[in-house]
Task: inverse folding
């Protein structure tokens, strides 16, 4: 299916309402197409099962951040579980994905889910989202270190935010949980929230895509006293690239 036809189907048949069958967002209102694995409960079942056990299964009142929210399956699921006394902030710079994220927020009446059409980064400003002509892909990303940007990259200007700045301005609560899956830019995101991480010491779930992302994230989290463990057995033993990792704050010694 070509991009133009896919967008037409997504804007018509794709908006038929369904219910999420299983997983973190079970019971939520959703849209039929694309990414049917979201509402069928088939998307990243191991991660979803782990998130269902977050906080011993009770995260009412928590503040959670979702960096790289896509259509919002984790954002919506977390918002349903934290309830109106909590707060979830979802960040998605891809305008096509953000529109569907915001639609899902409205469909579920989640006023405590704050959606940002922006990328979390080290500082407030602008950057380029490399789309390679397909906004419907989940691999659109900010420029990788050393990545050549040619005409085929079809760069799109996007806003960047430091989440520490948002906290300082009173627009965000410091989090108890942070999920980061930002296609190679997690190191910039954690730099921009370093003060908040030190203050609240949340649990993090981070997906890694290249070595510079790994080293950059560890350079922030290791000095803050975080332990790490893979969510599932690593596909590349000895490398964190391609894996999803829990980061949990180390308890102070008695």
Result:
């Amino acid at each position: 299916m070509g991009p133009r036809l896919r967008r037409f189907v997504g804007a018509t048949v794709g908006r038929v309402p369904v219910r999420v069958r299983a997983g973190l967002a079970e019971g939520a209102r959703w849209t039929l197409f694309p990414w049917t694995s979201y509402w069928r409960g088939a998307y990243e079942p191991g991660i979803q099962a782990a998130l269902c056990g977050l906080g011993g299964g009770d995260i009412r009142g928590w503040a959670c951040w979702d960096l790289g929210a896509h259509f919002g399956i984790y954002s919506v699921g977390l918002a349903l579980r934290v309830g109106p006394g909590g707060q979830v902030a979802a960040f998605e710079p891809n305008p096509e994905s953000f529109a569907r994220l915001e639609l899902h927020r409205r469909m579920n009446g989640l006023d405590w889910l704050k959606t940002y059409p922006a990328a979390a980064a080290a500082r407030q400003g602008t950057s380029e989202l490399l789309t390679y002509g397909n906004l419907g892909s989940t691999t659109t990303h900010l420029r990788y270190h050393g990545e050549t940007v040619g005409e085929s990259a079809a760069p799109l200007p996007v806003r960047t935010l430091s989440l520490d700045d948002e906290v300082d301005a009173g627009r965000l609560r410091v989090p108890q949980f942070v999920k980061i899956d930002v296609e190679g830019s997690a190191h910039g995101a954690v730099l921009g929230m370093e003060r908040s991480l030190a203050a609240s010491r949340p649990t993090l779930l981070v997906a890694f895509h290249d070595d510079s992302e790994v080293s950059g994230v560890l350079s922030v989290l290791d000095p803050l006293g975080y332990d790490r463990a893979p969510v599932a057995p690593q596909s590349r033993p000895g490398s964190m690239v391609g894996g999803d990792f829990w980061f949990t704050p180390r308890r102070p010694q008695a």
In short: The mean pLDDT is 91.
